[in-house]
């Protein structure tokens, strides 16, 4: 019995350690995104023809390039730090937009029920019946990329689960007696939805938003990789990887590090999401 | 029967939405004569081309003509070479099917047994492995996985070609990339649908009457647990086609995903419209067939 308790304790602390690490990593990147280039060890835009495609650890006139330099001599580490801002900003905005619209539509349809609900589900079914990434490149490619369009398209790729979950949960909440009571007291629809339904479904929406953030970051990097991401001065992580592909046989650091940045960021987000889900819904733990 | 009717209507709506969306996008994107003709073309040349393309008619008439042509598989010709869109798409389609098929097979080969083992020995070593790889796999952009595979197996060990289409050796890395992309959701779903069947009373009955455990798992649990997995497989094919857009770009694999990207970059809109329409059509067919297959496997669903 003692052994079982011990095992429980050690395994718990190990997983807690991972969650803590993930959260710390996220905070660091969020900080990098807020402060922009200030955290970067060198000016990410500064090119240097003599320091082109130098391997990690190369000591140039500006200092040590810990992660090497790219094809025009920019410092990879600084570019990665500078790339945190567009990655986090674009995906955060998209998920916010998707959650806002998805939850609004879902709650309204769940409250009204009947045809409205059926119609909403039908629309989501139509969207799910098409490979989304192809849709995304088609829209952004034909209309030409801009920040607003990329945010809109990524939001389009994320809104379905928000709408479905808030629809299903609102249907359940509306059945409750206290909602009936508010209705008897002539509470308006908006009041019922915002004051009584929303707080009930909010924990699940938060969990969903966390996972959606990870998906959005991967989606944005994919769009950037094919040249259809947000137009920024400094290259985004996806665009850095596209350059890495051109130099794949000579400069491995161009493909390894920007991808690692995406991977670690999304992994941290997903680990926090798993933990958040276990907290809000203990029954689902370990699923 | 009603289910099939509903599925068919949904399918028609999906195709119609895809066609309408690309039509609207291309109309919104501006004057195609500026893409096709050189910059110094005269206004009369442009007007003539607009007339040839039917752009001088009103939008509704254009839309109806476009739908009518699409229904017969006619998406016009590429802006840049005289080949018809249908023949371009059909030329690239087999490569994508080959890639997606190989990837799906590879993913199933690992995900199904591992998912079953994870459920049977819950919290065991395999289970931990599936859980951890699922979280890690879901966090890696598929195109980066492809780049890493190239780095290690093509550049580092020189085992496979870096990119291109052609020999079976060209297929290995892209198929592995797509399989890694499909593995997490497949393994997780196999595991959770097995876990749902395991505690049911007919499993207990099978055990109680002395059926050996391997048969209980192999026949009773597996057959019932596979139904949701089959449903997912159909969706997974759509996912794979979406993922193939990036994978094919990484590996310069001559499939419709890469065709979509290169035509978008060249602003060759008829080809883009054709790719989107054919993918929508193919996907609708696959979903429909999956619906039939599920009813074949599980007779209880037949009359619903």
Task: Considering the chains and any ligands shown, give keywords for the structure.
heterodimer; A: 287 residues; mainly alpha; MetI-like fold; two-stranded antiparallel sheet; 9 helices; 2 strands; B: 304 residues
Write up what this structure looks like.
The complex is a heterodimer of chains A (287) and B (304). Chain A has a two-stranded antiparallel sheet with strand order 1-2. Chain A has helices spanning 2-35, 76-112, 114-128, 132-143, 147-174, 177-184, 189-225, 237-246, 253-280; strands at 58-60, 63-65. With 287 residues, chain A is mainly α. The longest helix of chain A is centred in the N-terminal third of the chain and has 37 residues, at 76-112. In chain A, α1 packs across α9 (253-280) and α2 runs antiparallel to α3 (114-128). Chain B has 304 residues and is mostly helical. Chain B has a domain at 94-301: MetI-like fold. Chain B is built from 12 helices and no strands. Chain B is flat, with a radius of gyration of 24 Å. The interface between A and B is large, with 46 and 54 residues.
- Going by helix content, strand content and strand pairing, the class of chain B is mainly alpha
Q: The CATH topology of the domain at 94-301 in chain B, please?
A: MetI-like fold
User: What would the average pLDDT of chain B be, to the nearest integer?
Assistant: 84
Radius of gyration of chain A: 23 Å
Summarize the helix and strand pattern of chain B as letters: HHHHHHHHHHHH
Q: Summarize the biggest pleated sheet of chain B.
A: none
- Which CATH first-tier class of chain A would you pick? Mainly Alpha
* Low-pLDDT runs of chain B: none
Number of strands of chain A: 2
CATH architecture of the domain at 94-301 in chain B: Orthogonal Bundle
Terminal CA distance of chain B:
9 Å
Which structural class do the helices and strands of chain A define?
A: mainly alpha
């Amino acid at each position: 019995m003692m052994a079982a308790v011990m095992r429980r304790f050690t395994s718990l602390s190990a997983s807690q350690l991972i969650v803590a690490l993930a959260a710390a990593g996220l905070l660091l990147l969020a900080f990098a995104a807020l402060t922009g280039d200030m955290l970067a060890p060198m000016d990410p835009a500064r090119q240097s023809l003599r320091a082109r495609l130098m391997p990690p650890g190369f000591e140039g006139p500006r200092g040590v390039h810990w992660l090497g330099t790219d094809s025009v001599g920019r410092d990879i580490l600084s570019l990665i730090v500078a790339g945190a801002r567009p990655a986090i900003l674009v995906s955060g905005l998209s998920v916010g937009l998707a959650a806002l619209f998805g939850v609004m539509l879902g709650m309204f349809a769940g409250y009204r029920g009947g045809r409205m609900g059926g119609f909403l589900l039908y629309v989501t079914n139509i969207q799910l019946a098409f490979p989304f990434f192809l849709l995304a490149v088609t829209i952004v490619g034909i209309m030409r990329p801009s920040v607003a369009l990329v945010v809109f398209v990524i939001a389009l790729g994320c809104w379905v689960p928000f709408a479905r979950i808030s629809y299903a949960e609102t249907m359940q909440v509306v059945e409750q007696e206290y909602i009936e009571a508010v209705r008897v007291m002539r509470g308006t629809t908006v009041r019922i939805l915002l004051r009584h339904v929303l707080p009930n479904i909010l924990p699940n929406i938060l969990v969903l938003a966390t996972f959606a953030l990870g998906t959005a970051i991967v989606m944005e990097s994919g769009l950037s990789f094919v040249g259809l991401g947000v137009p920024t001065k400094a290259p985004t992580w996806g665009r850095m990887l596209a350059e890495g592909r051109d130099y794949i046989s000579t400069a491995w650091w161009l493909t390894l590090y920007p991808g690692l940045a995406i991977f670690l960021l999304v992994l941290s987000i997903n680990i926090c999401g798993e933990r958040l889900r276990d907290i809000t819904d203990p029954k689902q733990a370990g699923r | 029967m009603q289910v099939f009717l509903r599925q068919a209507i949904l399918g028609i709506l999906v195709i119609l939405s895809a066609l309408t969306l690309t039509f609207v996008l291309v109309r919104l994107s501006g004057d195609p004569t500026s893409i096709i003709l050189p910059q110094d073309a005269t206004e009369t040349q442009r007007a003539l081309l607009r007339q040839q393309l039917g752009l001088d008619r009103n939008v509704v008439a254009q839309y109806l003509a476009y739908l009518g042509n699409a229904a017969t598989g006619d998406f016009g010709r590429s802006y840049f070479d005289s080949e018809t869109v249908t023949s371009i798409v059909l030329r690239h389609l087999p490569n994508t099917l080959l890639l997606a098929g190989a990837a799906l097979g590879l993913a199933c080969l690992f995900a199904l047994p591992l998912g079953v083992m994870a459920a049977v020995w819950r919290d065991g070593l395999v289970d931990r492995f599936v859980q951890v790889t699922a979280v890690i796999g879901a966090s890696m952009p598929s195109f980066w996985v492809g780049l890493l595979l190239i780095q290690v197996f093509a550049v580092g060990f020189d085992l496979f070609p870096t990119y291109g289409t052609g020999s079976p050796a060209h297929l290995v890395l892209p198929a592995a990339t797509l399989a890694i992309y499909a593995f997490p959701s497949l393994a997780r779903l196999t595991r959770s649908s097995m876990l749902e069947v395991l505690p049911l009373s007919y499993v207990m009955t099978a055990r109680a009457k002395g059926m050996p455990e391997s048969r209980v798992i192999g026949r009773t649990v597996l057959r019932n647990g596979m139904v949701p997995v089959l449903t997912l497989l159909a969706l997974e094919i759509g996912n794979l086609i979406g993922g193939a857009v990036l994978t094919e770009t990484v590996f310069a694999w001559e499939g419709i995903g890469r065709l979509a990207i290169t035509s978008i970059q060249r602003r060759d809109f008829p080809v883009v419209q054709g790719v989107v329409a054919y993918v929508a059509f193919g996907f609708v067919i696959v979903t429909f067939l999956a619906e039939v297959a599920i009813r074949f496997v599980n007779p209880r669903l037949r009359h619903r």
